[in-house]
């Protein structure tokens, strides 16, 4: 307690402070402050700020958080597409790369891609590999966050129980954190657009459907990291459509991008993916627009109970289908405002994602930064030898 | 930061420490520790510990949390019954009182009872009124916790928007905190029996049905304090029973104590309250037992989706009907383990409340203690003149 790591938390707000100000703010002995500031300077996590402000004499040095001290690799793996970014310690993207990649190709192929492209990004950015703070990765299925292993993921053959965390830690020599894609999207969206809203639901509508819950500003993962899994909840009005999970009546079986594409194809309209649905909707295809509106209503049926139970102040609709215009979200609003308990919808906002396809990348970076810059981790970080003093 | 209030948090674990140990543990300057220990001693929140351990010479004094420094009044108001307790700062009940009281009689009558009986308890316990840390109260309806006012509570005519917090603060001259009865029961049960389980659902089955959610060890109240309101969620298989809320198909309309009593009465069995149902079940009445089992299944239908979404590690079934034996909980288990997502039920326990009818009282006390002994509040407390030095 009250370690260098704790002192550092103060400085993460970006405001520069002198040693005397830090002593006054914390009640720490002046000698302790000096010792801890020195350790933080050696780690490069803080640096002297605004030297130019000197007007003669020797004013006391002020210190500030240095978001370039280290960097993060953030990966967002979807069913058919993968993104990887290099970010600073404020989750700002410095460089990125993306590729069509099937998660069903298995963990070695996908994680080798992360390994190769990640090291390319580091090299191209001219960064020291030892300055990598950590790797964050989102996967399209349930993940036990504490062990970094997927748990019975329905669309990820070969991944069940695979040690994703250990694999990436070996390849990069830094901490790796794994979560499901919707959780990291919720983190990213909350960090960028809704940090003032303590209770938020992020709903991803793409090939599949899932949600991430923010409770009191923190991700609610649940006991198995399975919280927010709403794609396989039953629609109240029932349906006999068979879901890829093997059950019938799941929300995902009727309202996902894959389900809408299949319905369009059955009507002789060329569509096989979420992206086809989005393209048709943007082109004004009436049937695509009608199906999107109905998908919104179906999602609303399941969300209505979730809203009564969780009582968020904002629901963010993201994922590829959310980019097809207002029809999907209008359908969601139509049902949620009618069906949820009046008190729970009193000030509820239902909005489109503002981070779009960057939500996952930003969230994966935030996950690593929040973990690795917590007090105890910073103390560990500083007990290791500093890598580069760039 | 690093104030006397922060120092006090260390001591709340009950372990006595010397000034030197506190300085070592915190990194605070020795002079700062002395200053803050003196302030805490003056406030009576800590006291010298184990003087008897002295074996000659003058060993350094050790200090420990003094749970008797102040006391709390904790009220649990049900639909037809009210309880009030005086507890110490560890939420141990020191004295209590209970009475049949209709919440529908309105706020003045109910809160006057709290006022009168509360002051009686304080006097009988021989405590100084100025040592009251605060008043916690649970009410059987939705409450906006931040303002301490009920919000459109269905069974509490006259209470909508009533300033319960202000009323009690005026009467007792201490902070008052208000929440709904299920939230405080969740807090009480979590505090006593499940403090190691970060994610918990507490389901109250009594005259009505509701739940309280614990996320990462903290109560998830939601944006309007309406989280956990599951009594008015729709049963998946539908029903045309009209609920007291005006809708049809609500869980509460078919599975609450009131609903079961009505079903028994319709069969010519004398029953009008939850307590009658419990008495019949304990007496082995087959129809009561069958209806309890079916109520458990109906609750399980609604809980199944909640479990998938929230992914708790434990569900505690409390409220008066939970005391009727294993039939209710067996019905809940039957459906939840069949219907929830496999990952979410992997290690899920569904258990009976261990605090029984004390859950609300303990939770109301915990709510006040956690609020009023937080660092910033302790700092405020100490800036006021100490009341008694008992």
From TrEMBL, chains A, B:
Pfam families: HTH_24, ROK. It comes from the Bacteria. Belongs to the ROK (NagC/XylR) family. This is ROK family transcriptional regulator.
